[in-house]
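Researcher: Quick one. two chains, 696 residues in total.
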Amino acid sequence: MSSDRDRMLATIRAGVSRSATRDVPKPTPVIPKRGQVQGRALVDLFRVQAEAASATVTEVATAADIPAAVADYLRSRNLPPRLRLAPDARIGNLDWKSQPMLETSSGYSDGTDLASVTPVLAGVAETGTLVVHSGAATPNTLHFLPETHIAVVYRDELVGTYEEAWANLRAQHGGDLTDGAMPRTVSLVTGPSRSADIGKILLMGAHGPKRLHIVLVDAPRPA
Amino acid sequence: MLQPTSNDFVANSTGALANEPLQEALGVLRTQSIPNRARAAAALPEFEALRDRARDLKNHILGHLDQYLLQFEEQVHKSGGHVHWCADAETARKKVLEICRTANARTVTKGKTMIGEEIGINDYLAENGIEPVETDLGEYIIQLRHETPSHIIGPALHVTKKQVEETFRKSHTDLDAGRSLEEPAALMAEARAKMRDRFLEADVGITGANFLIADTGSTVIVTNEGNGDLTQTLPKIHIVLASIEKAVPTAEDAMTLLRVLPRSATGQELSVYVTFSTGPRRETDPDGPKEFHVVLLDNGRSAYLGTPMQEMLRCIRCGACMDHCPVYHAVGGHAYGWVYPGPIGALLTPALLGVEKAEPLPHASTLCGRCESVCPVRIPIPKLLRYWREEEFSRAITPSVQRSGLGFWAFFAKHPRLYRIGARWASRVLRWKAGGKGRFRSLPLAGGWTTHRDLPAPQGRTFQDQWRDRKAS
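Model:
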């Protein structure tokens, strides 16, 4: 008796061999011009697109300004000054003690954290999208469980198109994401969680974060 | 498993037309779905070129499907996961249950999966003592109401806000009966709170997949709520239900499809969460599932490769065809009687169940072509519907009244002189009968039409007569 795998492959092969599209080559991609910008235009496009997707954005000059910007954001929204930080050098090495009001802890989320601060792999200006991935320093639960997700994006992490973000991830793995090199999850995040499932009325904060706040840092990613 | 009622399309539709809350709910297709897509398409100058690329990419994939599925399988193994090839729904259901049993699962959280609906996984798990918990808000609402999805991306499209409130009051009996649920936000907050513990306590998480990435062995989900990500990150085991045509060569190639999918589906530039999942948690990962399984379903699809119907397998499940279909606008999704409604459902249902179980569906269309005009992968839906109609006629599945009607019409169509005389005569009689009003409020044998709207009467001479005059002048 042949297995389901053998039977499925046999039918698929028979179909492919008579298919009118078996000689169709893989098309070259069309990459929207919109994202092919640089400098200030890139930052502006990212901001406009992220805000259009209902994220909020603040810009700071240096990494040292991040803790104050985060504290200001929480205060302005009347949110409790408690943060779960990603155990990543880009976040953990910041001087959080400079903000005495803030209570911080580090690690993955068990569902009780109200706000998280994480780094990103990239910010994609094309659609105001963040690219985040799971890993020892970037637990996936921090991206989805807290009510408020605060993401820090350094200047050289901003790219115009999705393709550049993938190129950056591939470069981190010697150009090759095959054979288990991909992180367990890579997520493209555009704005806070939402749903229109109740009478088609669009509401923020379905199951993921109710708020997505992005801190743009006008400085290169710390080495 | 959902018993198909597609052959009762006419009766289902009659009920749907008289269902007032449904008719109210369907209004959003015109006021929101159509303008949202149009705005998103207009905002991206390359949108039409991207649709061409999306079509070409899917054609390429379907012409090399064996190769991409084998590469996908190899890469899933190399990243520590498992692929289970399942030829039919029964095998897939059993495989899912077997995996759940290895974890002694009591509850399973579920992200939205149409393959889950297709194989009837919820009822099967429940029959076997495992509680399935739908986490997508729309799916949760219809699970509480014991209903099936009526739209492939908005499963509770047919439910009004007032009905959601009634459903929550009836189901969430542990909450204060006097609470205010006037605001839609209050309803959502209640669902979010209810779902939190379910996410955290589930033993297994089941999601669907929009794409299967061959070169990395990743599965991709596209959501707005974040429920799919919580479903696959928190439990010990992540099971992905996917059908074979979802393969895509690389993550970059998936972006071509992702540039047209959300714009066509909801009019968003990109859905909020697009997540590529690859294998189980890594050794150094602080969170994530310990096992990763892909249940790869055929269920009859492979037989259509290399046939005229191959084109329907390009579908990326955006729902634009139903959002723009005048028939769907009038009767909603349940009338179609199975898992996939609307124009794409009228192609897929006969393909997956057999034409004899879905005879009316290929006729549930005016062939107006709006579906094809918005399809992100340019599936020629009207052409393929005609293919099913021919198939039904040649296999004598078409009901005898229609067959004799078609035969009657064919006789005149083949005798142009008689056709002209007949048409002239009929047009005059109808005009005379309609009197000065130019339309009929009721007409014998046409009650199905005139109960809901007037039938316009012919206004003058026949088309052929006018055509001849204009050519002559």
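The mean pLDDT of chain B is 95.
Researcher: Thanks, that's what I needed.
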